[in-house]
Amino acid sequence: MSTEKIADAVKFAYWVPNVSGGLVTSDIEQRTSWEFEYNKKLAQTAENNGFEYALSQVRYEASYGAEYQHESTSFSLALLLATERLKVIAAVHPGLWQPGVLAKLGATADHLSGGRFAVNVVSGWFKDEFTHLGEPWLEHDERYRRSAEFLQVLRKIWTEDDVDFRGDFYRIHDFTLKPKPLNTPERPNPELFQGGNSTAARQNAGRYSDWYFSNGKDFDGITEQIDDVREVARAHDREVKFGLNGFIIARDSEKEARDVLREIVEKANRPAVEGFRGAVQQAGNSTGDKKGMWADSSFEDLVQYNDGFKTQLIGTPEQVAERIVDYRDRGVDLILGGFLHFQEEIEYFGERVLPLVREIEAARSTDRERVGAA
């Protein structure tokens, strides 16, 4: 078990439902909406219930249950302007964005929000989004090489003047961005998140990003990833924080929570799940070491399309809180939560689960101090 920590307390984020269809590809009722007014209220509810971050999804056209989609950066800015404390992470695709243009947008969003804008660099899994827009589709490792350059260019433009960058994918010549992001001690430059399970993704995270996002994982799976990324980061004199995806089903009884999971899977939209499975598992299996995202995901795992059931945040408030702190003890800094009924379940989480997380964290910290003093 890894006990190294960067933050004292685990932080919480939620998936912004800015695409239709909810967070599970199932015909079960999902009391949620992709429309702005719903999401505006949800963001305000989340920041008042202990959530520090929200992640806006990126899809450019209908796919696998997501018939409608709002663009992530504009939607993120709207949510930032509707809230006071929430940090909103916009997912973006290198290959569909020029990094200097995104750097300009990000600096403006950072000023307008008082330093709360962040970026999640997504290397891409949905081939049609690129080919339908007339853009080349690169193979897995080439996409991550492009993302590595993208992360470097963003950081340079946000922190340096007269930027020159000569890469295989991007060429920047004597470029200076003004104004730059706020970059105060309280609000440093926009945080850079990056996900993926593959060796290439881990290398990028360890070398260039502030945060590494993982798909849903059990204890052994996340520990292996954290240890690997930390080793890369230390080799480059860096530290990286870790976010973990988990679909949260907290109910008054464990039976009720397990029944909800069972119903979600039983009512899965099989053609949509199988279509998604075919699209993503070829990406995961295209890596040489088979460590790509979704490479080992079962049908049930993919009903929640980021393997959120694997994290097993399912049960009573006490059970979910205990498991969250167990992940914290293994080095997870942030839980990225998905929910079936977002508005009411985020309220339930803030009232019933999060206070227990803080109690357990405090008790374990006291125990560690007592053992250390003995």
Automatic annotation (TrEMBL):
Keywords: Flavoprotein, FMN, Monooxygenase, Oxidoreductase. Residues 12-333 form the Luciferase-like domain. GO terms for molecular function: monooxygenase activity. It comes from the Bacteria. PANTHER family: ALKANESULFONATE MONOOXYGENASE, ALKANESULFONATE MONOOXYGENASE-RELATED. This is Dimethyl sulfone monooxygenase SfnG. The gene is sfnG.
